[in-house]
Automatic annotation (TrEMBL):
InterPro entries: Cyclic-di-GMP_PDE-like, EAL_dom, EAL_sf, Sensor-like_sf. This is EAL domain-containing protein. It holds the Pfam family EAL. Residues 1-236 form the EAL domain. It comes from Marinobacter salinisoli.
Length: 395
């Protein structure tokens, strides 16, 4: 059995911050044995625990000779070893003392899967923390993942399963979900690592998702040549430059929206101030094929009168969401676009794409605060976030 290490990189630091230790096994003919087959060999819990200990012993001894006195060593611990309890795993503390590897350089990875003894799992995680190790939940997002385990165990790092990245590569909605999961984990006090990054596009998705660390074949495959690993470079400068370039291009349509609609909004606000209805004042806005609706809100966030729907809004009203259609007297104060318009009147604001509660479609909202009869009001306009070419060409 040999130790293979795969680098783990911090995107912001643009360098290696740790290595995951992986076992590489060979038979008597020096033919590779798949890790899956290796871990199927134990025929009893005792043998399984012995193999788990042997792997960790090997990794720590090898890493102790590695020319790196700063970065983390990520160690996988088998679920059986975890649920055996801290007493059964007390050898680990002795191993750290014997090798002299500081405990704060160890990240114990616990596979995300169900356990029959949640209390024993908490005790074991507490044991590793007491030793001074960091803890990580592995494969979050696959199978039995849930935030309850995050709240119960309070890991330092959460490793997202590569299936989340695969789906985000293929589906824009999945990409938004990935970004949301990363945000929730950060709010839970966890650093986030995305594993399984295999292509440049996936690396850019990882950067955009806001994860802290990345790992995968795109950056570096696991290697038993430990000396070569210490000299490897990640090449993040070029990658981040491409991300910045793409991000500027992504922001351009938003800026174009503000530029294009500014005069329409100013005209509509003047007409509203002269006493015209929302539908009359916003006729030019509602005539644009990407606009779905316009509505007026007072300084308390309460909608004034009914929403004015565009032709597209009238034609594509989904009867399944009819209970949400009427928004007269609705309270929009929670919406960021409203608070921005109230805090900075006479400035046209635009949101990131979000799910519209009145029709369950993705939109962006333009909002403009203006004064009318001594009071502050806000004109809002929802625009389709992803209009089709047919919608844009329809007049």
């Amino acid at each position: 059995m040999r130790t293979a290490l795969q680098p783990i990189y911090s995107i912001s630091h643009k360098r290696t911050v740790g290595y995951e230790a992986l076992i590489r096994a060979f038979d008597n003919d020096n033919a590779a044995v798949l890790p899956l087959h290796l871990f199927q060999l134990p025929s009893s819990p005792a043998e399984n625990l012995l193999l788990d200990r042997l792997c960790r012993y090997l990794h720590i001894r090898n890493y102790s000779t590695f020319e790196d006195e700063l970065n983390w060593l990520f160690l996988n611990v088998s679920p059986q070893a975890v649920t055996s309890g801290s007493q059964s795993d007390s050898f680990f503390g002795q191993l750290l003392k014997k090798t002299g590897l500081p405990s704060h350089r160890i990240v114990m990875e616990i596979v995300e899967q169900p356990t029959d003894d949640a209390e024993k799992l908490r005790e074991t995680v507490a044991y590793y923390k007491q030793l001074g190790c960091l803890t990580a939940i592995d494969d979050f997002g696959a199978g039995h993942s849930n935030f309850e385990r995050i709240w119960n165990l309070s890991p330092d790092i959460v490793k997202l399963d590569r299936t989340l990245l695969t789906r985000a590569t293929e589906d824009h909605k999945a990409r938004q979900i990935l970004n949301g999961i990363v945000s929730l984990l950060h709010q839970s006090g966890c650093l986030v690592l995305l594993e399984g990054v295999e292509t440049r596009d996936q690396a850019l998705i990882a950067i955009d998702a806001g994860v802290d660390f990345v790992q995968g074949f795109f950056f570096r495959k696991p290697s038993t040549d430990l000396e070569a690993l210490s000299r490897s470079q990640a090449g993040f400068d070029e990658l981040l430059d491409e991300y910045k370039s793409r991000n500027r291009q992504t922001l351009d349509p938003t800026l174009q929206l503000v530029t294009f609609f500014r005069e329409h909004f100013r005209t509509a606000a003047d007409k509203l101030s002269s006493g015209q209805s929302v539908k009359e004042a916003c006729r030019a806005l509602l005539g644009h094929p990407a606009v779905s609706r316009c509505y007026l809100v007072n300084d308390q966030g309460i909608q004034i009168d009914d929403t004015a729907l565009s032709d597209w809004g009238n034609r594509h009203a989904d009867p399944r969401f009819r209970p949400l259609e009427s928004t007269s007297s609705a309270d929009w104060f929670r919406q960021q676009y409203l608070r921005k318009a109230l805090n900075e009147p006479e400035t046209l604001h635009v949101t990131e794409p979000y799910l519209c509660v009145t029709g369950a479609y993705m939109c962006v909202t333009l909002s403009l605060g203006f004064h009318h009869n001594g009071s502050l009001q806000v004109l809002c306009c929802d625009i389709l976030a992803n209009p089709t070419p047919a919608q844009l060409n329809r007049r």
